[in-house]
C-alpha cells in the first residue's frame, strides 16, 4: 500500500545575529572546502549570518587572500547553488592568514588580526586539524589572550583513539578553555532528523508510553554507506569503523533514542541524560556481541586493501556490528543492534523500533508494528507499519506503512546548524567531555577485540559479513529496507 505522505508546515527560521569572527584552522583542507565553507555560504544566503561577521581562513599554505579565494571558488562553490556573483558577494566576508598551527610564533599575527576586528561579539576557533594539534593550538591561543568569555573552540572528531588519548586531549584543552567554551563536534548532532527524534519522543503523547521493554522488542541503529573509503584511505586506515562512526555518531543516536526524558533541552540537561544512558549500558562482551568486517573485491568494486594508500596487509575494519543491552528498568532485556559499514548494498542512516506483537492477538497474521526513522537530509522520513484489515476473510490483515516526510522547504546542512550554534555560543548540540569519555570506556573491550582478531571479509556491495547475522536474536533480523 502506498504511504500517504504528509508535509509539515515549515517554521520560520531562527535568526542568529551575533557579530562574529570565525577562524577556520585547516581552511584549505577537504572538510573546509566540501562542508564548512558551503555551509557558511548557505547560512549567509539565508540571511542567518550577521552582516559584519567575518570568516578568517587559516592554514599552513602560504597563500594570498586572492589565491585562497580562487581555491574556494573552485573547490567549495560547486557544493552550493551560488552563482559566481553570489559567491563573490559572500567572499567579502572572507580573509586569509597563513598560519602553522604547530608554530606558536604564528599566533601573534592571528591575535593582531582578531584585535583588528574589535566589534566581534563572538569569536570561534574551528580546529579542523589532526587531534595532536588541539592542545598546542589552544595553548597558543591562550598565550595571546584569545580565550576570553566570548571565545569558543570547536574540536573536530576524532577526539583521540581511545579513552586515554581522549582524556589527554580533554585535560590539555581544559588548561586553557572552560568546558562551556569547548564545542566537540559530531555532525550527526546537527542533523534535523535526529532533532526530530526528540520532538517525536517528547513532543507527542503517542510514543513515549510505549518506549520501553514492555512494548519494544528490539531496536536497530544502522549507518550504512555505499561508498568505500575513496581518497581517505591513509587517514581511515588508522581509524576504522568503530572509531570513525560508532564511538561518536552511533553512540549519539543511541543516546537520543534511549535516554530518559531530560529535564529540559538545555545543554547540560540534555547531556546529563545522554551520559546517564551510556553509564547504564551493560559491559560489552565482544566475543558474543561484536562482529567486524572488511570489504573485499567484488563485481568490479575494489576491496579495501586495494584502495589508494591502504597497505595490502591492513586489518582495519570497515564494518562494525554490536549488540548492546541497557541495564535500566526501561530497557532491561531489549537488544540494541548497532551497525555501520562502508561499501554496503544501500545507503541508510536509520533507527528501527520493532514493537512486540499484541498478547492474545485476534489477528494472528498481523505483523508486529515497526517504526523506521530515517535521519539523512535527503531521506528524512518516518514510517510506521500498521496492520489494516483486507476486505477478504474475517481475520485477514495486510501491513500498511504510514509515511511521514519531515522535510521542510530548505533543509540546512548539519554543518550549517552546528556552525550557527557555535557562533551563538550554544553548546547543546556538542559533546561534553564526560559523555565522550564514557563512550570510549564502554567501547574499550571492542577496541581490544579488534586488536586481537582480523575482521571478517565481506564482498563490496553486499549487506556485510555473514557472521553479523548471528547477532540478532531468533525472530529479529537486520532491517534491509521497507
Ligand atoms: C564522518 C566519517 O564522520 O561521517 C565518514 O568520518 C562518513 O567516514 C561520514 O562517511 C558519514 O556522514 P553522513 O552525514 O554522510 O552520513
From TrEMBL:
Substrate binds at residues 187, 191, 225, 244, 342. It catalyses: D-glucose 6-phosphate + NADP(+) = 6-phospho-D-glucono-1,5-lactone + NADPH + H(+). Its EC number is 1.1.1.49. NADP(+) binds at residues 60, 100-101, 157. GO terms for biological process: glucose metabolic process; pentose-phosphate shunt, oxidative branch. One of its GO terms (molecular function) is NADP binding. Residues 198-473 form the Glucose-6-phosphate dehydrogenase C-terminal domain. Residues 23-196 form the Glucose-6-phosphate dehydrogenase NAD-binding domain. Keywords: Carbohydrate metabolism, Glucose metabolism, NADP, Oxidoreductase. Signal peptide: none annotated. The active site is at residue 249. One of its GO terms (cellular component) is cytosol. Pfam families: G6PD_C, G6PD_N. Pathway: Carbohydrate degradation; pentose phosphate pathway; D-ribulose 5-phosphate from D-glucose 6-phosphate (oxidative stage): step 1/3. It comes from the Bacteria. InterPro entries: G6P_DH, G6P_DH_C, G6P_DH_NAD-bd, NAD(P)-bd_dom_sf. Belongs to the glucose-6-phosphate dehydrogenase family. Catalyzes the oxidation of glucose 6-phosphate to 6-phosphogluconolactone. This is Glucose-6-phosphate 1-dehydrogenase. It comes from Neisseria bacilliformis ATCC BAA-1200. The gene is zwf.
